[in-house]
## 1
Amino acid sequence: MTFREKSSSASARNAINGNGSSKSSSPVSKKPVWEYAPSPEAKDHIEIRSQYDLFIGGKWQKAKKYFATVNPATEEKLSEVASASKDDVNRAVLSAERAYNKVWSKTPAKERAKYIFRIARIMQEKAREFAVIETMDGGKPIKESKSVDVPLALAHFFYYAGWADKLKYAFPNQVFAPVGVVGQIIPWNFPLLMAAWKIAPALACGNTVVIKSAETTPLTLYKLAEVIQEAGLPDGVVNIISGAGDTGAAIVNHPKVKKIAFTGSTDVGKLIMRSIAGTDKKVTLELGGKAANIIFEDAPIDQAIEGIINGIYFNQGHVCCAGSRLFVQESIKNTVIKKLKHRLKSLRVGNPLDKNTDVGAINSKMQLKKITELVNSGIEEGCSIYQPECSLPERGYYFKPTFFTNVAQSNRIAQEEIFGPVLSVLTFRTPKEAIEKANNTQYGLSAGIWTDKGSKIFKMVGQLKAGVVWSNTYNRFNPASPFGGYKESGFGREGGLQGLKEYLNF
Ligand code: NAI
Ligand code: MG
């Protein structure tokens, strides 16, 4: 890692306090300010086409309309992608049905496994390209796409490749069959990873797929389409399309789609439930969250601080299981807040393609507006805001890492999913109070507990209404471990054996 003295023009800009340049020569401005030298990831090895058609039946097919996807870090257009109409969705579903009837349902399980394995291997070879495109299209720091999104995505393909010919051991003494054509709709926060969570188990169980990317982040799915082609997967087994909410609705409502797997907002989850009521479609919903990260006085504090940071500022807080409500035991409140402020000052916010960046760009203008609106509501409701001093790039969508103290449980910032780098700090006195407060939400996706006492962890875990509970760590994922929620965070599990079950009829 290299450091350099801040450039003279930058230090002059910082020293000018709005009324001219004479003060810029004050002794204060001469003090050297050290910062990291830029360390941008190279982009010359990646290929983004100027236009992407729909990937249906193993071929690229034109659509009537196209829309732009931009790089939220620079606001530059990266490419144009097809907006799939109802007719296009119908074509994709029919192609998946044909592939299911003619080829995939007749392909032996051990052959299915080989295809899935091959997809994983090719993705692995192109890991760097995937990481750079994921970062450019969505704004997440390159160090995260390189170390989390891409390796975890391909780990899911490897994992489920292993299960494809062992399903009878996964579900012994049970009779089961694939569902048929499955429709999958994913969000913009982890595009490639969510696609892997959905496509890999679906294929392992013998289904065929129509999957739709989210509006702002379609590019890595189309890269995956290229990988699927290269892997020689029979035409129509996986169909990849792009479009907005109405494209998603057309998938949900298509009579030949036998299962819906959705990750996204609770509002759309509810809409989906309404539209499939009375049909025999299977459904899994992975929706929003407002997770409690609970820090006891006996916790290893410095480790917990890292867990808090990782819990809420990872991926700019665009994480359904983000630890967005921090519960600190009152006796250590001042220490935790002091350490948190100190740690926030060292977070580097800016160009997502820079290898030293910790917090990248907010995914879209719309999301930035939503975050700003909710943060303003916190200020209006009397909560105290803290943001470190840091300069944000002039172009692109950015938001400073933020936390609030003096938060009441009834405040909007303690109840609503902000989906941004914003933490609400609350306190508790006893484990009982921590549980009551942690469960006081419409959501129930995840939680974190930090304590030195194993017995306390076990006691808490049983009473927290959350699908995943991490102890003395946060945001850890493994393909063998199921993930999913309670209450308005949805139902059904992805990952592990439980994730296979959702793609089979028993
Ligand atoms: P969204 O739920 O509208 O979008 C997710 C996906 O659903 C996208 O692919 C979208 O095209 C599709 N979709 C939209 N309307 C649909 C419909 N009627 N039928 C079928 N599919 C439909 O989420 P959005 O608008 O991108 O984000 C809004 C808020 O939702 C965020 O601020 C965040 O709080 C939350 N969110 C939560 C996510 C999670 O992982 N839990 C992921 C994305 C957003
Ligand atoms: Mg984009």
## 2
Amino acid sequence: MVAKVIDGSAVSLQVRARCKGRVDRLRSERGITPGLAVILVGDDPASRVYVRNKGCACAAAGFHSEQYDFPGSSSEAEVLEWVRRLNADPRIHGILVQLPLPGHISGDRVLREIAPEKDVDGFHPFNVGLLAIGNPRFTPCTPAGVMALLDSEAVNPEGRHAVIVGRSNIVGKPMARLLLQRNATVSVCHSRTLDLAAMTRQADVLVIAIGRPKMVTGNMVKRGAVVVDVGINRLPDGKLAGDADFDSVLGYASRITPVPGGVGPMTIAMLLQNTVSAAEHSATMACEEGSAVQRPTPQGQGAGRTARHGFKLWRRYRF
Ligand code: NDP
């Protein structure tokens, strides 16, 4: 058996084309251009590349995009202040803080400062909670991209054993929640898992997000499994490699994502999708708020103010 290689670049282009259509509709029907702001702190070369790629994708989809580069010496207070400004900026519908942040800045604190309705990465505890209860608004982009790839291959996880290697907040945990929502039986492995190979060999769907090049080899994969390799690792020769040993897994899996060209492009596509959703949501809320304000009330103006206040509270708690 030689696995089919899933073309993440091609699938991502389809998602991006659909986003572009939604952007065009928003602009022509509502006069709104989706806006994404990206904050980068420090000089991490990989982060710079990711941010540049996101910027290019935004431009191609017709977004308004802004990038804020902070020196690595910036204080947490400065970054928080900038996030607050972007929260209040009506041209910006999505805010992304590129991780990792320098050690003296708390990623948790910065992510919590982002308004949940602009949290297009889906990392704010409010959005994490919505995903946990099975009612996601903004699904973290990488796991969302993995699900879109599985769908593009008509891989239905229902009733299958999905094994995820890695339990980060960014990939592993939300991945587990999404697969559980789709009725897979989910196992999550990590660095303390005693016999990793025994677990991975049970997987019908194997998602690997470890950050260790070529760690999962063919003999750790069940014959016919679908293998999704999230890892992106720079090898000493400058080439990129995933967490799966691609050549050896090819002989066991039925399908496999390559690195590069697998999950990576999907992550960016899902970021665009989340940002368009945020812009559409904000347009709908503005419209509803407008009609709530204009609705005549028998009690007069005072009651109108109460209705507006109630609406704002409702909006706050909807996210
Ligand atoms: P983290 O370092 O946050 O998490 C790595 C996870 O792997 C942890 O849960 C860790 O376990 C687990 N792990 C580490 N070593 C082992 C081991 N020997 N056996 C089993 N589990 C192990 O990484 P991320 O989740 O952020 O990223 C994972 C990979 O995915 C990286 O290569 C990253 O570059 C890539 N990535 C790719 C994206 C894309 O768009 N394609 C987006 C985001 C990430 P423990 O919790 O016990 O420490």
## 3
Amino acid sequence: MTADPFADLPPLRDTIAAHGLSAKKALGQNFLLDPNLLAKIARIPGDLHGQHLYEVGPGPGGLTRALLKAGARVTAVEMDSRCLPALGELAEISGGNLSVIEGDALTIDEPSTIGNAHVAANLPYNVGTALLVRWLEAPWLPWWRSLTLMFQREVAERIVALPQTGAYGRLSVLAQWRSTARIAMRLPARAFVPPPKVDSAIVHITPRAQPVGVDAEILSRLTAAAFGQRRKMLRASLKSVPNALEALETLGIEATRRPETISVQEFVEIARILSDG
Ligand code: SAM
């Protein structure tokens, strides 16, 4: 093996052509081909040398190459069987650092199949959001060490949004109450082949300790009720949540407020009282 086993790889565009991997719209395929951009993305989780990384939806393997070059041990799950030969070639020269699983990431039981790992993914937006919510609701501390995920820009902004903004909602609270979430990179639509309709952004999320005495399921139900009717005052939207209006009173939170004015900390305090009862 040469010092850099990846030095002789053909450009990704040639790999895509050689394996007939034209992007399929139904699979939400928009590929990143620029090695410099991919190397920058691979730096977002921090130093990956010797780290286990779970990549969801590697496609032809552009980000996978960058993650391997950054020193990660990669487990990748891809559902498009057309991509497996190209990924197999990459696995062969990776010196045992890439294993590929053919399958649907939505059905993977990560704690038993993947174990502790950083996560990186450029996924179709609907799949990405479904996985994010599941990962944020995982038992704490979760199996994932960090999440580096591509979203359409508007979703990324909802994840990191602060109260009193139009983007602030359930996703913001779920992402921020026991994690730190930030936008690490913004990408114009033209960075992808083919370009999607909207711009994208990469969110980086790391877990923190969970506030004591708060049941995650209760917080989840509370935010679903509050933001399910975001134009309504809490006294109307929280009627369906047992003891929630009493909790507001205990905390001195006006029931005439609307959910976007309630801070993450206030949601946590309401949930803590409800978790007690
Ligand atoms: N990571 C590559 C890149 O950045 O160029 C490909 C990104 S493309 C937007 C999304 C990839 O995720 C596709 O290869 C698609 O087949 C795969 N994919 C879509 N849904 C999936 C799922 N549920 N489980 C696993 N892979 C999926």
